[in-house]
Amino acid sequence: MWHCDACDHKEACECYCRSAGVEKLLAGKIVVLDPGHGGPDSGGVNYGFQESDINLAVGLKLCKKLTRCGAKVVMTRTSDVSLTPVGSTLDDDLQARVDVAEKAGADVFVSLHVEDVPNINLQGIASYFPERRSYELACAIQAAVVEETCAVDTGVSPADFYVLVHNEMPAALIEMGYLSNPEEALYLVDNTYQNAIAEGIFKGIISYLQLGIPSQ
């Protein structure tokens, strides 16, 4: 899954780019990646792991894959920082993420998160989209990530998350697993598994763009 035996490329995605015409598809496309939380807002914390760190690790891997294949990638953060000054509200932080996407003129916006809930038995990946738009983007990403990771498919649903409903471009929010589940938490901090998630989101974005759906 992560190494191509057919050539000398170190990562199979390089072959995928060239063989599937992905470089041409991504040329000129602007993708904004939003690793959720950061700085003093660590998001979920369990078993000594922080959601913000997982979100960023996957985001950086995904950025590399997309950039290598010709996309222009803008990340809302590239380190463990907050997007707003101390004392700002949660809505201020979320609006700052939207502002990054709007300023970039993004063709696609993807927000990265993991779940943290009281029920430690829950597991799996879910994708969300704003009501009445971006359904195809969320579905494409969900299908590809589940295929790459073999994780439990918990489906695609509409949601009113701030970064979805306040964005004008196609947007999806991915819950990449449950940090509250002790087994899944270990997967989420594993470098190889993070790469599989990133590969899935990468292929999902490609699948969506191949549909040729106008910006929505």
Could you outline the blueprint of secondary structure elements for this entry?
Layout: H1 12-19, H2 22-26, E1 30-35, E2 45-46, E3 49-50, H3 51-68, E4 72-75, H4 90-104, E5 108-115, E6 125-129, H5 135-149, E7 153-158, H6 162-165, E8 171-178, H7 182-188, H8 191-210
Parallel strand pairs: 1-4, 1-5, 5-8, 6-7
Antiparallel strand pairs: 2-3, 6-8
Helix pairs in contact: 3-8, 5-8
Order of helices and strands: HHEEEHEHEEHEHEHH
Number of helices: 8
**Unreliable segments (pLDDT under 50, ≥5 consecutive)?**
1-10
Strand content: 15-25%
Write a structural description.
With about 220 residues, the protein is α/β, with parallel strands linked by helices. It is built from eight helices and eight strands. It has helices at about 10-20, 20-25, 50-70, 90-105, 135-150, 160-165, 180-190, 190-210, and strands spanning about 30-35, 45, 50, 70-75, 110-115, 125-130, 155-160, 170-180. Strand 6, helix 5 and strand 7 (about 155-160) form a beta-alpha-beta unit. Helix 3 crosses helix 8 and helix 5 (about 135-150) runs antiparallel to helix 8. The chain is globular.
Question: Concise description?
Answer:
The protein has helices spanning 12-19, 22-26, 51-68, 90-104, 135-149, 162-165, 182-188, 191-210, and strands at 30-35, 45-46, 49-50, 72-75, 108-115, 125-129, 153-158, 171-178. The chain has 216 residues and is of the alpha/beta class.
